[in-house]
């Protein structure tokens, strides 16, 4: 068992370090064993919807794909909506990522849409052409767009969930937990139904133990420093500073074969939320590793997909 966990960690190490070619290679390793194409009977897919249309909008990165359930199964209030933010070490990745000729994130969209949950898979600008602040703004713009347009696609804007994997987990949760980002775009944080970071990092960058476990201080500093004075970047980029009572419920997931540094970050976020009086649930899902857990999010026989769906179904929001 220990050998398996160590091997899994070695196989996904390049993904966490953010090397573009190795990022896709991490999925290649798991594809033959974990990928199962999710059909979307009666549903529809709307690709490359712009969530920014101003003159400075990026024609590729300021877009999202919508995965919509079958119209005849729409509840009176509309479907719950899941916004999903891809990973890639803040430097790589795309909503249309394919590995071994198979789609990665679109499969998640089809999987949940087939179960009556609309999904928006979003792009955002990548470092180092963009800064962390740019990326956070992009995700906030995307979430605000989905909230404002969900109803016309059959979704319920009052049943909105924000999720992401790896770097996308940090970006998604940062936007959803910040007291300012969404309100500045006309969406109160209280309008969100849930936050779902999966195998994320950058939750508490002031924690020295994380770096001792292999959290790569220089890796984070290169992405998050951006001219900050001294070590202030550690606080500025961390999510724990947003922990407070009244936040939407948070579901924190990581796989049992994830990096110990990322597991610790998940635990620290959970502890900070609970200490502040927020509702948080931490789940270590069976098997898998840092990259391959994404493939299990579109498998009905795997724990990760079931936990996320149950969290959405059990939320007390929307109509």
Describe this structure in words.
The chain is α/β, with parallel strands linked by helices and about 325 residues long. It has a single domain, classed as Alpha/Beta hydrolase fold, catalytic domain (Rossmann fold), CATH 3.40.50. It has eleven helices and ten strands. The strands form two sheets. The chain has an eight-stranded mixed sheet, sandwiched between helices. It has a two-stranded antiparallel sheet with strand order 4-5. Helix 1 (about 1-15) packs across helix 2. The longest helix is centred in the middle third of the chain and has 18 residues, at about 130-150. It starts with a helix and ends in a 6-residue tail after the last helix. Residues about 1-25 have low confidence and may be disordered.
Characteristic terms for this protein:
single chain; 319 residues; alpha/beta; Rossmann fold; eight-stranded mixed sheet; two-stranded antiparallel sheet; globular; disordered N terminus
Brief rundown of the structure:
By secondary structure, the protein is an alpha/beta fold. Helix content is 37%, strand content 18%.
Write down the Rg: 18 Å
How much helicity do the residues have? 25-40%
| Average pLDDT score | 90
| CATH fold assignment | Rossmann fold
Mind telling me which CATH architecture this is?
Answer: 3-Layer(aba) Sandwich
Secondary-structure element string: HHEEEEEHEHEHEHHHEHEHH
- Order of strands across the widest beta sheet? 1-2-6-3-7-8-9-10
Tell me the strand percentage band.
15-25%
Low-confidence regions: 1-23
CATH superfamily: Alpha/Beta hydrolase fold, catalytic domain
Compute the number of strand runs: 10
